[in-house]
Structure formats: structure tokens, C-alpha cells
Amino acid sequence: MKLHIRNLGRIEEAEIDWRPLTVFVGETNTNKTWTAYAAYALARYATREFLGGVAPYSAVLASQIGHAAEHVRAIVNDQLVKQRPAYDSMEQSPEVALLGEFDLDELHRRFPLDRWQVRIDGPTFADLMGIDHQRADGCDVQLGLDDILVQSSNDGKIEFVYDSTQRGPNLVASYSWPGSRQRRRERVFLDPRADISERVTREVVRIALLGVFHEAIVLPAERKAAVALIDAIEDGSPLPFSQPVIDFIERMRAARRWDALARRHDVEQSLSQSTIEHGLRQILEGTVSFDPDDRKLQFERQGCRAIQLHGAASLVRSLAALAVTLGARSEERCLLVIDEPEMNAHPRAQCQIIELLAQLVNQGHYVLITTHSPYILDQLNNLVNAGTVPEERREKLAERFTLKTPDAFLDPEKVSVYHFRADGESSDAKVLVEDLYDRDENLIDADTFGNISEDLERTFLATVEANLNRE
């Protein structure tokens, strides 16, 4: 995917090659977080959970969807005529009726996603970040989608059934999706007077043409404090934060509700066996979960009694959300945006974190991070170099890594790294966005951190010399 940026903060213009693992590095106040949040907001339009018209994610795809919908509607009408020519509205339908089957591959051939772009303008971005509209004047961020991301798995069919036997009329969509082990079923309540063709058309577009990701999840820099707010603030209360932070809080609340529901119905959650749970157990030396009694987050260190999360170490509170928001969805392709994953982490833990994120990428997820950590960048260099090692040598090489698994070794084609650099010393200097990945050498240029280390070394030598020259 391609991310095109104009007039975002101090960035006049930039183009970012958005790959499964994309990393933003650079000094403070160079608009890395703004870019990451804009990418997250754009990706929300390309998720199956997105229904359109939910502020501040306005229907920026309206004109493009409208064009595709005209053609999809013709296919839908053709199916409806074949399946049920006797009625035009749901009032005339039987209790259960097959409305049609639609081939995802055929839809993708007729409406390739790579011709589509989603866009955020200045006012939309200002609302997203909760800032004055003048701060985002002229802002324009566009995401060029990638058709390969929506290739179907299994039989690649969407089946629509009209069902009025359960709590009124429903449209039931059944389909398979990349990474899923079984067909999904979605039930949407319908107005009995609704036009079948229009409603099925909307669902075909949403599922087949917008579903790049199952969902987009953001872990903002405020996540440690925000975790506590899921208990301190009532559901539905207005929250004075940027939209990504609000989304994070709501995501945590939803995870708690799902956990309670799963326990009540004795549903086995995939989290217990997931890559995330296993990796976090190594990093945190314990597990994060919701207390079954008071529903608050708790941390249980190996061999110790559980304590409420607010009493746990800073690193535990920083990474807790990763376990409860993405863990249960480990079989679905998600986008995960993390602002500074190294927060409060020892250098070894930082290396473990990037290895864990690399495993998620290899499972089919997309990960976008901002970072100030030389350890994360250096270990990422190691992972992409290990990704070119012959298969028979990988197990032995994996012993050199912190999580000790070759599952973290990365294909270089899955990685992009960008440096956000101020072009001058003044506070209003323009920010340049530069590609740090030398693909010919298979090397990420980490001079952005190396220069600081060299300065520190020269400063140390200067202090030694000053002491030696004392009279």
C-alpha cells in the first residue's frame, strides 16, 4: 500500500511504502505520531468492522463506493432474479430465502482494489486529533489500497440468506476470509420495507471490497494511563482525548465485555494458545487477564498471586492492552499501530518486543510502529538478515535471539523503515521523510541513532581530557 502525505504538520510532501511491518523513527516533534494516526484512521475505512458514517470516520469513500456499487447492484439484481423472481421487497419474502452467492475473486477482478484510494482532509484530521482546524489547514493524506490484501481463502464465496425466524427480519452473510479456519456468519437486522437489492449491494461492497483488515487496533502513547480509564469513566461518557485514544479505551472495554461473555458461556478463547500470549509471557514473566470476579485487569507473575494491574510494573501496564485486544483475534488479519512499543522496557525486553511483532507479521497481520529505540532498529536489522538464511540453519541461529524462534525471521520484502528528519535547526523547519532501508545491501541505516552515540563518546573523551589537563 502507498501512503501519500501533503501538509501534515511540518511535512510538506511524502510518500510511504506501507508494508506488513512499517517503522517510523526520528527526533521528537517530527510528526511521526500524526502520520501513524492518520494511517490508522485511513485503515479504519478498509476494515470489515467499519460501517460508515461513524464520526470522525466520515464516508470518504462515498464517490468511489457509489461507482462500484452501481456495477455490484447489477450483479446483485441478476442473482436475486435467479434465486427469487417473485418478490421485490422483504415484505413479500418467505421466512427463509437464499438471496444469492457472490464470488469474491470475480468481484476483485471486476473492481480491483488497487484502483481505490481513501483520503483524509484537513478538517477530518483536525477532528481526529482533537486540534484546531487551522492546525491542519491544507492537510491531505491518501492511502492507495492493495488488491492482493483482499484475496479470498477457502471457497471464496459470500452467501446471503434472508431470515425472519429470529427476532425479526435479518440479512445473514456467510463467507470465508484470509486466515480464517471456518466460514464467518454476520447477521444484520433489516427494516421489513427495505429494498433487498440495495441492502445486499451495501453488504457485498463492505465485505468484498472494503475488508482489507478484520479490524484496526491502536495502542497510543497514553495507553498506560488509558488502561485505568476503562474503570474510572462510565461507558458512553464523553472523553477529552484524540480519537485514537478514545478508540483504544473503547477497544479495552469491548475486550472486557467479550471476556465476560466467553466465561459465562464457557467459550474457549484462542488467546491461551496464541503467539501473543506466549510471547508476552516470556517478556513480562507472567500473564495479564481480567479478574473473573470484579472484571478488572490483573497481572499474575509466574509462581506468584495475581495483583491488580495498577500495582504491576510499568512495562506490564504498557503491554497489557496487546494481550487483551489482539490476542483473541490472532486468526484474523488485523492492523496494529503502536506508538513507541519500547516504552518502559529494558533493552532486552525491547528486542523481545520487536521479535514478537515480527511473529505477528509472519502470521499475516500488519504492524506499524513509531520508535526512538536503537535496540529495536538493530534487532530488526538482525531479523531481516536472518530472513534470508537457508531453512536448515535457522533453528540453530534462532538460539541467538531473545525469543529463540525462527518464526520471527522476516522476509525483507515485508519491512519498510522511514526516518522523519527536520530539515534545519529552527522550530518551524520542514520535516523530510526518508527511506532508511537499503534493499541492495539488505540493511537498515541506523545513523539516526549512531550519530548520538558518537557524540556521547566524544563528550566523554572531552571530559576525560579536561580532567587530565587540570593544573
TrEMBL record:
Which residue ranges does the record assign to the Endonuclease GajA/Old nuclease/RecF-like AAA domain? 328-376
- Tell me the domain of life: Bacteria
InterPro entries with a match to the protein in the record: AAA_GajA/Old/RecF-like, Bact_Antivir_Def_Nuclease, P-loop_NTPase
Pfam family name, one? AAA_15
**What protein is this chain from?**
Endonuclease GajA/Old nuclease/RecF-like AAA domain-containing protein
Source species, please?
Maioricimonas rarisocia
